[in-house]
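User: Can you recover a sequence for this backbone? Please restate the input before giving your answer.

Assistant: Of course. Working from this structure:
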């Protein structure tokens, strides 16, 4: 199905010169002189490279159907990460570069969203909030308060985040996976 620049939305997948891209952001520009155009920032689905491209207003592109599948993260055997479709119980192994940054927020049996553009897997998205235990952090001192500053803490998945001074090893924390921010102690 063909779409024009007027139908652009963030996250929409399109084909440009035979290559699949995902629109990261776009801006319609109407200069005082000349025709309108659309300035876009797109990510190549296969390589992950981000490009800035400009198109004439009204230009048409083929759209790629986007699909999301919920899958359960099972385990890692070192260089591959294994997921299972909870409906069909079909298992699949993904390379570390496909899983990317999401691996630092996934622990065994968590549910992740696999994003597909057509039949091609383009990424793995962890849940928005996860609860992870602190495996290592410097001890807090008497009198530390919430506003007293931050310190680094290593979580059970290996991720390192900044936490308030009163957090200790063994505490379970709620973390926002979009930006790696500490939310609260559970």
């Amino acid at each position: 199905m063909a779409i024009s620049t007027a139908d652009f939305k963030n996250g929409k997948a399109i084909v440009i010169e035979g290559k699949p891209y995902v629109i990261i952001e776009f801006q319609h520009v109407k200069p005082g002189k000349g025709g309108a155009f659309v300035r876009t920032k797109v990510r190549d689905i296969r390589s992950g490279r981000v490009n800035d491209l400009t198109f004439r207003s009204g230009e048409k592109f083929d759209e790629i159907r986007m699909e999301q599948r919920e899958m359960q993260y099972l385990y890692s055997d070192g260089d591959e990460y294994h997921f299972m479709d909870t409906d069909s119980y079909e298992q699949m192994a993904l390379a570390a570069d496909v899983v990317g940054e999401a691996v630092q927020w996934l622990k065994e049996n968590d549910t992740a969203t696999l994003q597909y553009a057509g039949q091609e897997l383009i990424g793995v998205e962890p849940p928005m909030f996860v609860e992870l235990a602190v495996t290592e952090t410097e001890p807090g001192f008497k009198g530390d308060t919430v506003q007293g500053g931050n310190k680094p803490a290593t979580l059970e998945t290996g991720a390192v985040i900044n936490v308030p001074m009163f957090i200790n090893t063994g505490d379970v924390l709620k973390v926002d996976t979009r930006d790696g921010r500490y939310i609260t102690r559970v």
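That completes the design. The first helix runs from residue 96 to 99.
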